[in-house]
Amino acid sequence: MTDVFDSNLPSLLFWGLIATTAMTTILQASQGLGLSRLSLPFLFGTFFTGNRNRAIVIGFIAYVIGGWVFAFFYFLFFASIQRATWWIGAILGILHGIFLLVCALPLLAHVHPRMASEHDGPRRKFMLEPPGFLGLNYGYRTPFTTLLAQAVYGATLGGLAQLGNVLGGSA
Q1: What is the structure's pLDDT at 171?
Q2: Is residue 13 included in any domain, yes or no?
């Protein structure tokens, strides 16, 4: 299994960047179009700084690095089942998105230093509203746009791995 990573590392890094860019584009476009107020790069950035302008830049860098890390988990999954396709990637992305919406976003309020919890009132210390279950505090279309972005992320990784034939005949 490690030989998949050794012989394809530059491709895997590049594909992870492409998938992360596609996912981020969908998420940021949905925010710009008023479909959701969720900005994961901004949420990540505010872990590190209270300066809103710096948070966007720092968060985007952290988000790209996170996209690469998750891409390796996706490729590890593809290698373990000896198959990589766009549709398996899309299913994996949707499952990832469901976990994000159901588990990770609601827990964020309990670990983020600048986010109020569902039980806190407004205070100067908190600069962010908690996303809530399914991220619904950031708009009722947030679950849809998040699942779409995650599905595109997974489909991109699976499709590029399939096209690159990294598993030796997995198409």
Answers
A1: 45
A2: yes
